[in-house]
Design a protein that fits this description.
Cytochrome Bc1 Complex, Chain D, domain 2
Length: about 280
């Protein structure tokens, strides 16, 4: 009611002086705009802002970005364990948070907390835990989005290498980038953008992808070992990884120092030889 009286008084205000009526209308419009701006700022936040602060929603996005590749979009497992299940623990939230933060030594589950060298903050881990536990409670399964492929220029297959690096780039984004980084720079997994010191680097990389590394965070990805990738898809991945290898530095032997003759190489050496010879004779 008070604001209506203020507006009424503003618009009924008259100023003194010739031509001042137009100025008064402009002034009143400015005051009205300022009041509306303040009113908008005092309105409650929209539902979208509230949703973005929901830990389950935050955990859903983080799960899709970091966990779904190994554990499946629906938590049913892929190359990692099934997570959509009942957790036999008095505090399942603490059990899950500890596994995410610290990993499981000797298994394919690395540590994800920043304190252990991973990329996730403590609050992000708690959000992922909240999302995982919605499956245990039988809540609605709102699946996370799938990874977005990184746009790359067309790639030329390396010589004498099977597989299509362009298909491999998409497969890499879908399966490998979460651990090895979008640009193969390493994340919780090893750096892949490097030189591969091997007579057949393609076979070395292929063997690691297909069979994994026992006792490490690298699982087996081939279907023959229980993974999701076909032989052709592994070939495509190998081709892509090799296109991203850093060029080897050319071997440059250390140049030999220039020959600088000493006094022994000239008359000095000859005189020294004569002196030594004469001294031997006198002995």
């Amino acid at each position: 009611m008070m604001s209506q009286q203020i507006l009424k008084s503003l618009f009924s205000r008259r100023t003194i002086g010739g031509g001042s009526r137009r100025f008064g209308v402009i002034w009143n419009a400015f005051i009205l705009f300022a009041l509306l701006f303040v009113l908008i700022l005092t309105l409650p936040h929209s539902g979208h802002a509230q949703t973005s602060e929901d830990p389950v929603e935050i955990g859903r996005i983080l799960y899709g970005e970091n966990c779904a590749v190994c554990h499946g979009l629906d938590g049913q497992g892929r190359v990692g364990a099934q997570l959509a299940k009942d957790w036999p623990s008095l505090r399942p939230d603490r059990a899950i948070a500890s596994i995410i933060a610290n990993g499981i030594s000797g298994s394919a589950m690395p540590a994800w907390s920043q304190s252990k060298g991973g990329p996730l903050r403590d609050d992000q881990i708690e959000a992922i835990v909240a999302y995982i536990l919605t499956w245990e409670s039988g809540g609605p399964r709102i699946l996370p989005p799938t990874p977005t492929p990184v746009p790359r220029p067309p790639l030329t297959p390396p010589p004498d290498i099977q597989g299509d690096p362009n298909r491999g780039a998409t497969l890499y984004d879908q399966n490998c980038a979460v651990c090895h980084g979008a640009n193969l720079e390493g994340r919780v997994g090893a750096t892949l953008a490097k030189n591969w010191p091997s007579i057949r680097p393609d076979q070395s990389i292929r063997n690691v992808i297909a069979n994994g590394i026992q006792g490490s965070a690298m699982p087996a990805w081939s279907k023959a070992k229980g993974g999701p990738l076909s032989e052709r898809e592994i070939d495509d991945l190998v081709a892509f990884i090799l296109t991203q290898a850093k060029p080897a530095e050319a071997f440059r032997p250390t140049p030999a120092p220039a020959f600088q003759p000493s006094w022994l190489s000239g008359w000095g050496g000859a005189l020294l030889t004569i002196v030594l010879f004469l001294s031997l004779i006198h002995i």
